[in-house]
Amino acid sequence: MSGLLLTGISHLVTNAGPVISDAVVAVEDGRVIYAGSDDDAPGLEGRIHIDCAGKAVIPGFVDAHTHLVFAGDRSAEFARRLGGATYADIAAEGGGILSTVEATRSATEEELFDLTAARVRRMLAAGTTTIEIKSGYGLEPEAELKLLRVARRVGRELPVTVKTTFLGAHSVPTEFKERRDAYIRLLIEEMLPAAAPLSDYCDVFVEDGVFDVDEAREIFTAASRLGLGARVHAEQLSRSGGAMLAAELSASSADHLDNATEEDAAALEESGVAAVLVPGASYTLRSSQAPGPMLWRSGCTVALATDCNPGTSYFESMAPIISLAVVQMGLTPEQAIWAATRGGAVSLGYDEKGLITPGVPADMVVLDAPSPTHIPYRPGTNLVDKVISAGRLVIGHIDV
Ligand code: NIG
Ligand code: FE
Question: Of ligand 1's atoms, which has the minimum distance to the CA of residue 100?
């Protein structure tokens, strides 16, 4: 037998048309060949049968913003913040990102691969089939390349699709604190050209006290000459101008956006920049959520992502992110599921991901629930029953 046949699906989200009940999906050679109602299904015998009675099927999650390659943890810093210290206080003392940089520089490439692969296996088990992975905890030429190589290797060796982003401009490393211009020169002249063959995008943390708009513009312009698209950490802790810069540069995405205004939203929409929202970071930092409903109303492509990192958002699964987006941010469950699948895919430039429609790679999640609304409604339960990545069952088993 070749291919898969999912039948009796109670609620099929294709992102290519309305929800279909009592649906069937057929997969051949890694791709969807039919997704529709049981009544209209052509003869599809001869495939491995998966009974989906009482279950919903959605596209695999597309996690469009992660900082997945790191060593160590920052639980002590988390505890300090609960006691009143702020993220910015801790960063100014040389903690925060820089403490993860220290741990990550000390780890070998093999150790980092093992740590990252373990995270990706947990992400897969929670339904994520496509992941954007940033560097940014090396902050020196060879260490940044080490992180990017690990990210690319994860995409080759595990059943997930990976896009990589060079985030050498995540922070100015300690040894350059008094010479930030020298770090920016190193970034542009040495690090970016070396990182470009391993990267799809470039990112800059645009924030008061980190990189300003002019510095970011120079870095993104150099990256663009090397063929890299732009993703921007924008308006996370303050309104620092990252969103307007993303619009000016027609970036692929502006991410975080907690402090974005209607003016920012209009500019992003006008320039076709996706708004990648990361409610796990706002939750962990106990700050207000990004204005998701306003960004949606203004016509922006809204995506949801974990922002998985050891400082501000140690979430590996998309389900709690969807729950935060619904309960705290105010997106509807349907909007949040779209943003966690097709929205993420659009932000990463994929025509064929985040969809279940004939011709696309078969990345799908079978939920142990009759509709995807159960995801935000039951945030404490992993409702993922099966995961199919590129047409292969990679999580769950088939009852015979
Ligand atoms: O997305 N904002 C910058 N970068 C991360 C935090 C990284 C860290 O604290 O290690 C973020 O929140
Ligand atoms: Fe981030």
Answer: 10
